[in-house]
Design brief:
about 50% helix, mainly alpha, SP0561-like
């Protein structure tokens, strides 16, 4: 399954714990954030000034899924 911008951060890290490091590399502290169950990847990226498309590419690369 491919990670999308619409998935919540919590959904991504629950399904793919290896993505935690990617979020941390972008300065998105997904495990400590109370918004993780509600914010999708795109919202989290925007709040932290990160390009959501690049974040999704890196997340999918981490789990071995090409965009």
């Amino acid at each position: 399954m491919k990670i999308t911008k619409e998935m919540t951060i919590e959904e991504v890290v629950t399904r793919y714990p290896e993505t935690i490091q990617v979020f941390q590399n972008y300065g998105i502290a997904c495990l400590d954030c109370s918004a993780a169950p509600y914010d999708n990847v795109e919202q989290g990226a925007q709040v932290h000034g990160v390009d959501p498309d690049q974040l999704v590419r890196d997340l999918n690369a981490t789990i071995g899924t090409l965009n």
